[in-house]
Amino acid sequence: MINSSTVSTVIIGFAFLSLIFSAACQHEQGVAPQALQPTLLSIQENIFTPKCVNQGCHPGGGAPMSLASGRAFNNLVNVQFSGFPPLRRVKAGDPDESVLYLKVIGSPLTGDRMPLRLQRLSNDELEAIRIWIEDGASNN
Fold it and tell me: Per residue of the chain (140 residues), what is the pLDDT tens digit?
């Protein structure tokens, strides 16, 4: 026969194990990105790292440039694009003259839409990049 003390012990044990497994899962998955904002930090956490760096396209030293955290700003803002047309990768204040923005929206001026072979960025992601550039492409 099961008494109330045994039931309480089982419930407490189950709750304890649930907490341990929950903590382990959160550790493996890392910290969830914050809500997307038009700042470099938010764009880095929500777009560049998961969709550009971690996909192997723009890691630490590969591709035309790295979009890794701590490197993206210096590799993008006011850096001359090596292709045609002669634009900057990011022209602070002007998304329509910024290769980054033109690439992610899929402009024929800059070749293949980015990210390559992956799902197109959402309208919210495109808007965050556009506003960040339009607001001066700060290292924020």
Answer: 555 554 344 344 333 333 333 333 333 345 555 799 999 999 999 999 999 888 777 776 656 788 899 999 999 999 998 877 789 999 999 999 999 999 999 999 888 898 988 899 999 999 999 999 999 999 99
* pTM for the whole structure: 0.73
Domain that holds residue 16: 1-32
In this structure, are 19 and 61 located in the same domain? no
Cα–Cα distance, 85 to 126 (Å, whole number) = 21
Please tell me the number of Cα atoms within 13 Å of 1 on its side-chain side: 2
